[in-house]
Every structure is written in structure tokens, then in C-alpha cells.
Amino acid sequence: MARLAVLWRSFKTAAWLGWQIESNWTDPFLFALYSAIKPLAGTAILVVMYGIISHNAFENPIFAYIYLGNAFYMYVGGVLNGISWAIIDDREHYKTLKYLYVAPIHMPAYLFGRGVAQFLITSVAVAVTIAAGVVFLRLNIVWAEVNWPLFFGALLLGVLMLALMGLFLAGILLLLVHHSWFIGEAVGSALYLFSGAIFPLEVLPAWLRPLGYAMPITYWLELLRRALVGSVAQAFPTLQGYSESQLLLILLGLTALFGLLSAVTFGLCEWRAKQLGVIDRVTNY
């Protein structure tokens, strides 16, 4: 019970701290406006490119495939980068990382808590993006036919998977003390190409496709699409031969694998960083 209390206290306090850091730069109205406009601006670029190439064929099923994949991929950058960025933020900006390590907290729970604010902000961004697609771009979502249990189950499992990937990256960042500012964004951007977010994996060269199939994000996005647009998502060849149950099992297995890998990697990197004395070493050392 004492350990659970430490885990909960670390997570809860970090979640509160993360929200204060993310939202205290302006008043609530401007922050809400910024949170809504920013994702729409990014999505507009994709929509304009698609409109030009397809001659405004927004009723084509491929548009729903692309639009939803791009919308939900925001979670990858938000959660993965939100958790790993806490290492850089506390070490480089606030200079508090060394004090956290002498405080009675559980570090992974603290990092997960720091990612909560980004998860909430990203959730608003995803909701606004999908709503804009339905209202203005005729995104074909029939709400009465949405598989809500599959949607929320896949969403929560995927967020857990992304949090574990963020912990893995946070461990690596403990050892990278020079110019590591953009690693989280770089990893998220690189994975964008291999996850089937905006095009089926068949578009990739044959030698790159196994990388996409090995990524849990690929199966997560497919499950979310199937939950929202059903047969439209199933019409594309990448994972057409898999049922929802099979996709869930694959995602669950890969999440467990990444969880084990992340725990081991973070523990080893944390131990090595302490041995090298780089826990509090900032970039300009």
C-alpha cells in the first residue's frame, strides 16, 4: 500500500505540475483558442494538398482514411514527446531534475503524470479536428454506427503504448546531455512515415514495410479508423485480412513488449546516468 501511495502521489503531483507549466503562459480563453486553432492550422495543410491532388474529392473513402489517421497521430507527438520532454524541461530549463532524484517520488510515475497535460490538450485538438472534418469537409462518420467500446478500448490501450514509448525515450534522454531538444519531435515525425497514418503501407518500398508492421501505432490507428468508419477503413489493403479481435491482440502484445523494453531501458539508462554523473548536466557543460 505504501508503494501504491508513492506511485499515486508522484503521478498526481506531476499531472498538476504539468498542467501549470503548459497553461500558465496566458489567460484561459486565449489558451483554449490556441489549443483549438493550432491543430486546425496543421490539418489545413494536409487538406489543401489532398484537395489539389484529388480535385476536392472529399467524399472518397481514402479521405476519411487520411484525415482520421492524421488526427489521431497527434497523440503520438503529444504523449510521446510530452513524457520524454519532461526530462529536458526539468534538467535544462528549471534545473530541478537532480532534486527530483533525491525526493521521495517514483520517477516513471512522475514522467507519466507530466504527460497528462499534453494528453488532455491533444484530446481537445483531436476532437476539434474531427468535428471540423464532419462539419466542413463531409467526413463520413455515422455516429449511430460507431463501435464505441472498440474505440475507447483501443484509444486507452494506444495511449498506454505511447506513454511506454515516451518512457523509453526519456531513458535515452537521460544519457544525451548535448543538443537533445528535438529528439522527441524527430522520433514522432519519423514514425509518421511508417505507421500508415496517411497512406497504406503498400505505398512504401517492400524492404521498409516490415518496419511498419512491427510498430504498434500501425495497428492502433487501424483500430480507431475501424471503430469510427467501419467498412471504409476495412477497404484498404494494409490490414484488411485481420479482424478487430486479432488487431487488438497484436496491439496488446506489442504494448506489453514495449512496456517490458521501456522499463528495462529506462532502468538501465537511469543507472548509467547516475554512474556517469550526468543527471543534472545541461547542454552548455
Radius of gyration: 20 Å
Major sheet size, sense and barrel closure = none
Q: What count of helical segments does DSSP give?
A: 12
Compute the separation of the termini in Å.
41 Å
Backbone structural class = mainly alpha
Approximate shape: globular
Strand content: under 5%
Order of helices and strands: HHHHHHHHHHHH
* Helical residues, percent: over 70%
The overall pLDDT average reads: 89
Q: How many β-strands, per DSSP? A: 0
Whole-number total of structural domains = 1
Poorly predicted regions: none
Brief digest:
This protein has helices spanning 2-23, 28-54, 61-93, 97-102, 107-114, 116-136, 148-175, 183-194, 209-213, 216-229, 231-234, 244-276. With 285 residues, it is an all-alpha fold.
Characterize the structure shown:
The protein is mainly α and 285 residues long. The chain has one domain (2-276). 75% of the residues lie in helices and 0% in strands. It has 12 helices and no strands. It is globular. The mean pLDDT is 89.
Quick tags:
285 residues, mainly alpha, 0% strand
Topology of helices and strands:
Elements lengths: L1 H22 L4 H27 L6 H33 L3 H6 L4 H8 L1 H21 L11 H28 L7 H12 L14 H5 L2 H14 L1 H4 L9 H33 L9
